[in-house]
Amino acid sequence: MKFCFIDAEKASFSVAEMCEALDVSRSGYYARLKRPVSARKREDERLKVLVHMAHRDGRRLYGRPKVHEALKQSGEHISAKRVGRLMREEGLRGKVRRRFVVTTDSDHPHQVFENKLKRDFTAEAPDQRWVCDTTYLRTPAGFLFLAAVLDLYSRAIVGWALSTVNDRHLVIAALEDALAKRCPTPGLLHHSDRGCQYASEAYQKLLSQHGIDCSMSRAGSCLDNAAMESWFATLKGELGEDFETLHEAKRQLFDYIEAFYNRKRLHSAIGYVSPAEFERNARAAA
Fold it and tell me: Cα dihedral sign for 72, 74, 78, 79?
């Protein structure tokens, strides 16, 4: 790979300078030029450059499946097995998810609602079914809490909010963010756990004002909101859950959610495109 870089840049820099910078010998470089290189080896070297680019464009989070899909989308005819081999040779790996732990305060006097979603994590159109939840993040000063709203049609995060307190104000802020961005028509199904934040009078009033139907997970059944929990696991696995300050957490979350996840990250559940592209393609086909 280093010798390929020297080949590409020797018109701009001297071979001696690049060999010294890359910690390779000039004799090794010139000896390589004299050796015949097989067509497969040349193709591997070319593909390694593209694999590095796909891995970099995926913010070094993509594993073999997404790197393979990115190369196919760019017009390369390459097998997943070959991508895996090239990634191993180059020391490239995806980021592994951490196990996600759910904590819900369902010991409250507020009304709870039946599970209308019934683990059907699909939707036929945007803003037809939203799932919501909260999770914790860490800073040296203590916990931060993230509330998010996910559209089951495209898996886009349509609303989110961050606070040092996990209360009804946090989840209301996330819902208001989603309502302002999407302006859903009445009849949308909203699914959450039975936490006191979502069951609160203020939250339920906001849902009612917008004609939104409420659904809640059954007591103690985290799988009833598996799509939302899966997204939190992805977030923590790719971005992490430890931040220096509240301000830094907000900055990194905005960059991850708005700039990368919603608009660029390939999502396997929607055919290896980003949520934004999935919705654009659906509008164009309508």
Answer: negative
What single-letter DSSP state applies at residue 256? Answer: I
CA–CA separation, 145 vs 134, rounded Å?
7
Average pLDDT per block of 10 residues along the chain, 286 residues long? 70 79 78 71 79 78 81 84 84 64 54 92 96 95 96 98 95 98 97 93 96 90 89 93 94 96 93 95 89
- The two tokens of residue 169 are 């104000």
Would you say 127 and 99 are in contact if contact means Cβ atoms under 8 Å apart?
A: no
With H, G, I as helix, E, B as strand and everything else as coil, classify residue 137: strand
> CA nearest 188: which of 261, 132, 226, 110?
132
Nearest to 198 by CA among 186, 184, 182, 212: 212
Interatomic CA distance for residues 157 and 130, integer angstroms: 9
What's the CA gap between 260 and 60, in Å, rounded?
Answer: 12
